[in-house]
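Example complex used in Figure S2.
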Amino acid sequence: MSAAPSLAALAASTTSTGEAVQFWILGTVAVIGALSTILMRRAVHSALCLAGTMIILAVFYLANGAYFLGIVQVVVYTGAIMMLFLFVVMLVGVTAADSLKESIKGQRWLAALCALGFGALLIAGISRASLGASNGLAAANAGGNVEGLAALIFTKYVFAFEITGALLITAAVGAMVLTHRERTEKAATQRELAERRVREGKHLPPLPAPGVYARHNAVDIAGLLPDGTPSELTVSQTLRARGQVRDVSTEALNDLKALEQRSEERLGRRPAPARTARGGAEHEEENDR
Amino acid sequence: MENLIALLVAAPLLGAAVLLCGGRRLDRFGHLLGTALAAASFVVGAVLFFDMLGRGAEERALHQTLFAWVPVEGFQANIAFQLDQLSMTFVLLITGVGTLIHVYSIGYMEHDERRRRFFGYLNLFLAAMLLLVLADNYLLLYFGWEGVGLASYLLIGFWQHKPSAATAAKKAFLVNRVGDIGLSIAIMLMFTTFGTFTFGPVFEQTGQAGQGTLTAIGLMLLLAACGKSAQVPLQSWLGDAMEGPTPVSALIHAATMVTAGVYLITRSGAIFDAAPDAQLAVVVVGAVTLLFGAIVGCAKDDIKKALAGSTMSQIGYMVLAAGLGPIGYVFAIMHLVTHGFFKAGLFLGAGSVMHAMNDEVDMRKYGGLRKYMPVTFVTFGLGYLAIIGFPGLSGFWSKDKIIEAAFAKGGAEGWILGAVTLLGAGITAYYMTRVMLMTFFGEKRWQPAPAADAATDVEPSADHRPGELPHPHESPTSMTLPMIVLAFGSVFAGGLFSLNSAFVHWLEPVTKFEHGHPPVGAAVITTATIVVLLIGVGIAYAQYGRKPVPVTAPRGSLLTRAARRDLLQDDFNHVVLVRGGEHLTRSLVYLDHSLVDGVVNGTAASVGGLSGRLRRLQNGFARSYALSMFGGTAVLIAATLLMRGV
Amino acid sequence: MNPVNYLYLAALLFTIGATGVLIRRNAIVVFMCVELMLNACNLAFVAFSRMHGNLDGQIIAFFTMVVAAAEVVVGLAIIVSLFRSRHSASVDDASLMKL
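Predicted assembly (1034 residues):
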């Protein structure tokens, strides 16, 4: 709290040059972060970009003399809420490589239009508002920012504070109720699962293992079916969702073709009709990685 | 005494209710009960008549209010009766002739399984007809008017198993509807003009109404009269109505109901007197129908249809007389009464002949019946003499007066009308002589009864076998007795009425009376009438008495053929009304389909299409909805800023 | 530099967040965008607090944070349970608003 007077001076009505520099640099980064948040394909990236924006906002809070809020922003928002987001993303969002293709006709254009209009109106409104001279928080923060806030929270806003407490408890209970799942039936045994698989008539044998006919004995290389095509089923669902499946079938097929040709030459047989290679050039590129 | 008036209506109404609701257990004596109640009504009528005679001419009208029928603010309709001399005349005619025809029907309908029902309908008719003539306001009159229409419908179609009878009943009902609309419009006009439709107040206020309104009311009343009295142009139903049992033809379609139109015009005399245009229309209708009916009567071989044409023609006389105003009203009613006697007698005679001839109606297959059916011959003959206006008999007195009144109309009109009535008298003499000669004189042209037809064989006299010649015989007493009584009426009624102008004095307080002054002397007119009459008889004798009558009708002249088809009235109706209606309906249907449905369907389709497009906005995606919210917020901000800016 | 610039930044961030809500289909990312909008508001509150020279704006921002925390807890719980039942975190897939 020893730095409080100097910081309070910073939060005066006319900002210092330092703050202006800080605003322009960090403000640009914050806007970029926000844009990245809504434009990133993967939810994880979005969450990280948002976290960055929030940290910048925490800096701005501090710059505006809201020391307590600045810290709370870092601790609660960035530290807790965003981590909760990440947690949930990891929990449910592995498949969430959101295709950015719009499914509702015209939604994106209309949204952009509305956003432009809305932003323009908002900014025009702010520019036209008579905001008066900035007073600065020097007086309000004279006894310390935290003390000032505490005095207000426990006097003027005490009821709102209490109600917010009740809201938090309710939210906690609600989240528990929503996510808690009572197991109402006995878990299926191995035997029952096997029987059900037979009854349903699909995948009677165990799922094929990855890495069959593979040059690399790795979990991200799909096994090959008898006709040489790769089976996506052999790779972990998560990898599939992320599009991180590698394909070796083209190489294997080429090898096979070369082998057949060699044997034909040796045996003097007519060449078999050429088989078309499955998979594209991009697969080869990936394989070379 | 006035409390008895309701009894007049109540007796036959009770009879109708009991007979129609009583069921089969009344079959044994139902006809007697019906006849007794009709007779009771006649007795009450007679008592009231003699009571009325006991009072001065101006105090004879009686009133009885039973109860308020529609008591509404500014609209008061009562079940109230008015018995004046005009009503009294009708009451006696209706109950008298009605009772006689009840008696006749006992014999005529003896073999009919549904005799009880027949008498129920007859009683219903009597009640409705009495209500019609006793009502003291037009609304109650309308009630009775519809009642007789219903009874007429039921009785024409009494042998409903015959398609022709069912069709005829329907036709009569529908044509009558047209007239009834006229009456209802007239009543509405009266109410809007006078604020009431009670006879007395309406007639007192005729002076205050505009000429146009009065003419409109008069024309509407005339339309009603045309419908009920089978006058041109609504005459087409009467000929077909002969499909009903003969007593019905005698009572309803000759003596009483068809004269309701004349009653209406006479009763509404005050209105017509104030509307000369309407009165002229009445005269024209009467004159046209007079000739129309007479010409049709000349060509028909069906005895009942010939008589029906005659009825039309005679009612034409009455309507013409009623249209002449105060110089004619009395004679219209007088002719109405005498006509009631002789025409009922003629119809009953025709029924008797048919009864004897295996229900054969074609006069060409009659002939020489005078020896076999003496009573019928004599009564029919007296009726014949009465209708042609043989001097001294009923028809002479009444018809002669009408011809005089027609001449007395004055001017060219008077001469034209006089000539028409004279010509009508001649034609009447011709066709009635024809009927007489073909039926009772000449050689026998009897034909074997046609093979039993299941559809028609349920008719009354079933005592014959197919393939045999008929065995004509005199009808039972129950049938001859009414014919005899009516024959007496045919002979003496006219003379009695004319004695000291008794009938004129009797009716004068109600209908007013003016002495007409024909341009030539009454004696000249009477002589001319007799001459015309003799010419008509002579021609008929030359054609049908001197030469044998062919069994199959000769082709005949164009006029004859047209007259056989009722002067093409049905063809006219078909071409003008039915075809026209069909075309109108078709075009309306087309209009309905294309325009009305088009608009309705178009509206529905456009709403549907619009909804289909709007529905796409509801695509179910939360993001879409969020977008509209976002856009809405933007609009709100813009609005706020604009308001601030202004 | 005028502190009003913080408001412009807040408006920009808010608009970006709103756009994200509209164009992203992954429920988690949508949620993040909501958080971004809330943070933009907080920044505006803090800036206002500085301009007005009192701490009420910071209090509001503080409450917003608390409520946002509660909202995130419940929202993420909903997403988790939704994912469990539908194996998808797409807001479009979860749509039952149109039959």
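Residues 289 and 316 of chain B are 5 Å apart (CA to CA). DSSP finds 24 helices and two strands in chain B.
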